[in-house]
Design brief:
261 residues, alpha+beta, five-stranded antiparallel beta sheet
């Protein structure tokens, strides 16, 4: 009888140990599953932007309702907004920031604020596009001579913030602003040397508009004039012939006057 009781209590103790261990394992598994589920929930999709156009004063988009969206602007400033219950968000631009075509903005869902803020999603980006208000007007060049040090020209009408991009024969480009008199002037970099008949092109950029069509001009020949009826610089033989004829006429006239005397 004693032996039977001993076996019973030993079996009971082992059962309690096994049951306790099983419960602990279940708790660990449940806790791990909970954490995994929690982390999955945190990895929400990136917030999305609506179209952003040049000179917009507000940017907007969609995200996870109730979450915070952090938007980074082209000047490096960051602003945070809470997504509305309908999944939309909008945020005004920082003071004195004007968006221009080609600027980029980024956004992410975050938790926390300030230095402790952590991203809970991937980052989405968007590029600012023109507001479709038309195409910029093409500029025109002033005359350009070989070895010129400055490129000058005009645009049809001045627009605040407009500029002209000049492309040189070697493929390099330089940009200069347009002044209030509808003119532009660009100093040629020292490593660029313009030669006779080189081709130069230019386009104009105006705020909120698509870049203008390119216009081209050629550098003048080494001689600033040419004789009529010639389409090239090969005028020297003709010039010599004309000079010879003039000298012949003068000599004939001189000879006739002597005979009359």
């Amino acid at each position: 009888m004693y032996f039977v009781k001993k076996i019973f209590f030993l079996t009971l103790a082992m059962s309690i140990i096994l049951i306790t261990g099983y419960l602990k394992i279940e708790t660990v598994i449940a806790d791990t599953t909970s954490k995994a589920s929690f982390m999955y929930t945190l990895q929400s999709p990136a917030p999305l932007f609506n179209t952003v156009k040049a000179t917009d004063t507000i940017v907007s988009g969609t995200g996870v309702a109730g979450a915070n969206v952090s938007v980074t602007f082209p000047n490096g400033s960051i602003q945070t907004i809470t997504v509305e219950s309908d999944g939309t968000w909008s945020i005004p631009l920082p003071t004195n920031l004007i968006l221009t075509v080609g600027d980029q903005l980024s956004a992410t869902h975050i938790v926390g604020t300030g230095a402790s803020a952590e991203s809970l999603s991937t980052i989405s980006t968007i590029t600012v596009i023109p507001n479709n208000s038309g195409i910029a007007q093409s500029p025109t060049f002033d005359t350009i001579s070989p070895n010129a040090t400055t490129i000058k020209g005009t645009v049809p009408s001045y627009v605040s913030g407009s500029s002209v991009i000049v492309t040189f024969p070697n493929g390099t480009t330089s940009q200069t602003s347009v002044d209030t008199n509808d003119k532009f002037s660009l100093s040629i970099r020292s490593e660029i040397s313009l030669n006779s008949k080189d081709i130069i092109s230019a386009t104009q950029i105006e705020p909120d508009k698509t870049i203008s069509q390119a216009v081209t001009t050629s550098v003048l020949s080494n001689t600033n004039w040419s004789l009529p009826f010639t389409g090239s610089d090969d005028y020297k033989p003709l010039l010599l012939i004309i000079i010879g004829l003039l000298l012949t006429i003068i000599l004939l006239k001189f000879s006739d006057s002597k005979k009359q005397k």
